[in-house]
Amino acid sequence: MALLLRFVLLCGVADFTRSLSITTPDQMIEKAKGETAYLPCKFTLSPEDQGPLDIEWLLSPADNQKVDQVIILYSGDKIYDDYYQDLKGRVHFTSSDLKSGDASINVTNLRLSDIGTYQCKVKKAPGVGNKKIQLTVLVKPSGIRCYVDGSEEIGNDFKLKCEPKEGSLPLNYEWQKLSNSQKLPTSWLPEMNSPVISVKNASTEYSGTYSCTVTNRVGSDQCQLRLNVVPPSNRAGTIAGAIVGILLALVLIGLIVFCCRKKRREEKYEKEVHHDIREDVPPPKSRTSTARSYIGSNHSSLGSMSPSNMEGYSKTQYNQVPSEDFERTPQSPTLPPAKFKYKTDGITVV
């Protein structure tokens, strides 16, 4: 029995010493965005492992649609770290002597796209070993904003709100009062670990400085607000003032419109009068000269009349004289009666 037990132990030791083993266990690591993640991978070799040492790190992205990517490789005593463009320049071996049994890496300036499963493979023939590490990148709470939603007046209902700009879930909230009496109203206690506190029937005792701290697994951030509960304002006076202001503004606008229209009408009238005055029209002839020229022409016509055209002359209408001259000059010149001589049946008639 003793010989059999010794044989089994020797076989087990032989199997152990003959195989390469990675001593780092599988694990999950959580880090904040922007930080550096240390991914351990330590191994031991046996005397039988005589082949060349090869170390390979693979990434299986969280998106299952993407294939595994080689992110860094050690082979033939050289390091190759430009396989994966998204991690280029951000992944490095932590040890300067990889043959010493440390194949750990650092991933710097973490991004959300770095989330996934990282696998360390070590090979030195005939020994082979591998381990997996799950890396989760979280976002620390940041850009916390505290404010009052509502009117801070006595008797009013309003809310105290705490809102982070970013932060990975789950988020934890904690409210505290920093000034005056640090004792919080009992009605607030159920909401002290929530992002919103509902204030009912506010009183001056609620006034003070409050803080809200938001935390998650990778960090925390805080904001403060000043709550000042005041008596109700004179709303009637405010409304009356607003109405008066609106009426004054309407009157002012009406005056401006009236003045503009009046000015336009004056300009239009001046333009029309200016166009009616035509400087290139010659002045009208003198009334006297017109009448005399007309009378002279009549004299010449009378002097040349013969008995044959007397009948036509008797029918002459005096409205042939320009109406303008006769209307403006009511007194027409007195002409001596004209004597006409004609013969009829041998008798001269004057």
Automatic annotation (TrEMBL):
<dbReference type="Pfam" id="PF13895">
    <property type="entry name" value="Ig_2"/>
</dbReference>
<dbReference type="GO" id="GO:0016323">
    <property type="term" value="C:basolateral plasma membrane"/>
</dbReference>
<feature type="domain" description="Ig-like">
    <location>
        <begin position="141"/>
        <end position="228"/>
    </location>
</feature>
<dbReference type="GO" id="GO:0014704">
    <property type="term" value="C:intercalated disc"/>
</dbReference>
<dbReference type="GO" id="GO:0030165">
    <property type="term" value="F:PDZ domain binding"/>
</dbReference>
<dbReference type="GO" id="GO:0016327">
    <property type="term" value="C:apicolateral plasma membrane"/>
</dbReference>
<protein>
    <submittedName>
        <fullName>CXADR Ig-like cell adhesion molecule</fullName>
    </submittedName>
</protein>
<keyword id="KW-0796">Tight junction</keyword>
<comment type="function">
    <text>Component of the epithelial apical junction complex that may function as a homophilic cell adhesion molecule and is essential for tight junction integrity. Also involved in transepithelial migration of leukocytes through adhesive interactions with JAML a transmembrane protein of the plasma membrane of leukocytes. The interaction between both receptors also mediates the activation of gamma-delta T-cells, a subpopulation of T-cells residing in epithelia and involved in tissue homeostasis and repair.</text>
</comment>
<dbReference type="GO" id="GO:0007157">
    <property type="term" value="P:heterophilic cell-cell adhesion via plasma membrane cell adhesion molecules"/>
</dbReference>
<dbReference type="GO" id="GO:0070633">
    <property type="term" value="P:transepithelial transport"/>
</dbReference>
<dbReference type="GO" id="GO:0008013">
    <property type="term" value="F:beta-catenin binding"/>
</dbReference>
<feature type="signal peptide">
    <location>
        <begin position="1"/>
        <end position="19"/>
    </location>
</feature>
<keyword id="KW-0812">Transmembrane</keyword>
<keyword id="KW-0677">Repeat</keyword>
<keyword id="KW-0325">Glycoprotein</keyword>
<feature type="region of interest" description="Disordered">
    <location>
        <begin position="269"/>
        <end position="350"/>
    </location>
</feature>
<keyword id="KW-0732">Signal</keyword>
<keyword id="KW-0564">Palmitate</keyword>
<keyword id="KW-0472">Membrane</keyword>
<feature type="compositionally biased region" description="Basic and acidic residues">
    <location>
        <begin position="269"/>
        <end position="282"/>
    </location>
</feature>
<dbReference type="GO" id="GO:0005737">
    <property type="term" value="C:cytoplasm"/>
</dbReference>
<feature type="domain" description="Ig-like">
    <location>
        <begin position="33"/>
        <end position="136"/>
    </location>
</feature>
<dbReference type="InterPro" id="IPR013783">
    <property type="entry name" value="Ig-like_fold"/>
</dbReference>
<keyword id="KW-0393">Immunoglobulin domain</keyword>
<keyword id="KW-1003">Cell membrane</keyword>
<keyword id="KW-0965">Cell junction</keyword>
<dbReference type="InterPro" id="IPR007110">
    <property type="entry name" value="Ig-like_dom"/>
</dbReference>
<keyword id="KW-0130">Cell adhesion</keyword>
<keyword id="KW-0597">Phosphoprotein</keyword>
<keyword id="KW-1133">Transmembrane helix</keyword>
<dbReference type="GO" id="GO:0005654">
    <property type="term" value="C:nucleoplasm"/>
</dbReference>
<dbReference type="GO" id="GO:0005178">
    <property type="term" value="F:integrin binding"/>
</dbReference>
<dbReference type="GO" id="GO:0005912">
    <property type="term" value="C:adherens junction"/>
</dbReference>
<dbReference type="GO" id="GO:0030593">
    <property type="term" value="P:neutrophil chemotaxis"/>
</dbReference>
<keyword id="KW-0675">Receptor</keyword>
<dbReference type="InterPro" id="IPR003598">
    <property type="entry name" value="Ig_sub2"/>
</dbReference>
<dbReference type="InterPro" id="IPR003599">
    <property type="entry name" value="Ig_sub"/>
</dbReference>
<dbReference type="InterPro" id="IPR013106">
    <property type="entry name" value="Ig_V-set"/>
</dbReference>
<dbReference type="GO" id="GO:0045121">
    <property type="term" value="C:membrane raft"/>
</dbReference>
<dbReference type="InterPro" id="IPR036179">
    <property type="entry name" value="Ig-like_dom_sf"/>
</dbReference>
<dbReference type="GO" id="GO:0030036">
    <property type="term" value="P:actin cytoskeleton organization"/>
</dbReference>
